[in-house]
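Possible regression after last week's pipeline update?

I re-ran a chain I had predicted before the update to compare outputs. Posting the input and the new output here so someone can diff against the archived version. Not blocking, just want to make sure nothing changed silently.
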Amino acid sequence: MSAPVNVHATAIKINGIGLLFSGPSGWGKSMLAFTCLTEAKRIGLDAVLVADDQVFLDKRDGQIIARRPDSIAGLIELRGTGIVALDSIAEAAMHFAILPGSASGENRLPPENEQMEVASGFLLPVIRLLGDTPLPLAVLMAKAPEIGR
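New output (post-update):
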């Protein structure tokens, strides 16, 4: 195990699959994660918040583990609405990095097998997502069907 790295992100777990939403401030990480959690629960999947805004990342047993700071346990900020309480867990393994997509231009089609280094030497496969996607969980499940299994 290494020393934890504090990153500005939102981490959730759906059906055992860890999703780390990372990107610039204002992209909509928290709202996209919240929408995914809500939709997952609506269709009967196990879905829980790990951390919002600050996520501690550790490397353990070949996996990237996201852990929440105790001071924000179970809290998520929904921009324009405020802070709400959700079911949460203290930590979870992460399987995908969810990053902002581009609706047009040369980056409209992201590279195949894109990866992001989220901690020194540890990579996560990337799924790109537009901030205004109305059904983000459906898009994520199209790219990573294991989320819905």
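Follow-up from reviewer: compared with the archived run. The chain is about 15% helix and 45% strand. Marking as no regression found.
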